[in-house]
Amino acid sequence: MGATICSMNLIDEICDEQNLLRSWLHIRGVGEAQLPQKDVNRFESSVARNLASIAQRLRDGTWVPGPVSKLRIPKESGGHRTLGVPSIGDRIVERVIASVIDDAVDERLSPWCFAYRRGLSTTDAIAALYEARDDGCSAVVRTDIRDCFDSIPLQRLDEIVTTTIADAAVVRLIRAVLYRSAPDEAPAVGLVQGSPLSPVLCNLYLNLADQQLLRLGMQVVRYADDIAVPIADSNDAPRVLEAVRAAYADLGLLVSEPKTEVATFERGVHFLGATIGLREQTPQISMHAPLESTLYVATPGALLRRKGKRIRIERPDEKPMSVPFARTRQVVILGRVGLTTPFLQMAMQSQIEIVFISDRGNYFGRMDGLVSSDPFLRESQYKRMRDEAFCDSVSRAMIKAKILNQRRLLVHLTRRANRARLSATLQGQAEIVRRLAIAETRPEVMGCEGIAARLYFQAFGDMCGSDWNFHTRQRRPPPDPVNSMLSFGYSILFQEVVSACLAAGLDPYASFLHKPRVGRQGLALDLMEEFRPCVVDSTVMRIIRTKMLTPLDFVVEQGAKPSCRLGAPARKRFLEALEIRFITEFAHPYLGRRISWRQAIGTQAKLLAREVTNDKPNYRPVIWK
To answer: Angle 349-352-353 (CA atoms, 0-180°, nearest 5)?
Structure first.
């Protein structure tokens, strides 16, 4: 994005002995084959002293990586690959450096870069080609980079590292690793294959070509140096291939001509061990199967009763249905729905939340049973609410995540957008992120958010198409179908976040980003910012792209201000689509595993609760990959 990441405490994280210990435990636990067992045993015999020595040398600036050992291993395609194996101590440090700078690097990467990223794998890369096929692409330009790691120019990479990481001490450590063989006679090119830091730096360097091709309207699906560019028409292949060659040539790299081809989905595209043809079924989206689910009741005149251990839903002119109390986590009431006293009593005893929302999406409130709470946590929360430094830090993190997640959604949909306008939007977002890094107060942060929102929704409107008549975000009342879906979806998301705050023991009224106000659950508004693009906006765009709804499915009421709302059948389909999104799994950036978006909301509330009581708080929001 071109923004320098403000990373004030990175060097402290690298010097932290607990982080060094975790790196050592990983190296010992996976039993990395390149490391001689006798060296592992020798290091382990004095591990505490060795780690303390490394930490001290890192702190006083005297740590210098040693030379690597050369190891030749056979390649699957024939021949051999030469690895450079760092010593155990150096490997520990390099793994910690890679872990610490990973966030700063990862947020710059294209959503179609899949290698060396937590939670992503070849399965995700292959799924991206299926998606491109289903979106109308007929062919793929396939290639890879010749001798990628060995050919990366170190001076150019050094410059990119310097503009990515603001901590000069960390940059010096990375530079020492880059030029480890002989600082005075440093090689001009080549990352050490075998260093834990090299894959992260390789991704950072190749991202320059990804972004250059993206500006030309091309989607580069990349796994390490294995490249696939989907195209709508195979006649465009020569132009696309020439652009790919030029993009990597600008980086001092060459594509492997023997491995370069134009493959069609009709004949089958070979990528990462899979063959994607026209007949192969698109892989199913990974979804979480919760033991408890959310029950939405939106039929006017419906009545909820208790029947033994089940919830009985009676609807006018329809057959009654029932669900177990034990399998229900929440009941969302939309509009005019009746509830009997026995039902309410059983719901409260079963710790089932009941949320009330109007058929237009206005949030009325909720009923809960006995909600457990930690008074000491809330005491800390109230103190943090008055801690300007804490509030400013959390505010910057949340709004930065929101902007990056908006950017990710726009980039993912770029082939359907006005590409020239999208490029300007992405540049504008990059500038806002730069301004956000130096914003000193919450009003300045919110000012950055407002500018970013205007840019984002302009591009979002371009993607919706002229039939939807969406130009800007308007809430009270929503005047068009897209605004109506956004407002309705945000209301559902809001009540999910309120539930997560309460479950984490937090007071949803004591906020850090939004100014606390009597009667406003500001903390829920804070926490939902990073999830708006990932959950609601993406659902709205999917509904539009798949024609699940059309503008004719909405009801427009004329008046001093025209008001638009979903019709009853449209509201049902919208809720179904949104619920699918809530239980869809994604790669959580810090947990290193896949969880659903609903689980992520709960996880982030718990992380925020932990930071409230932390002596050195550092809230890490969800940044969508």
So the answer is: 125
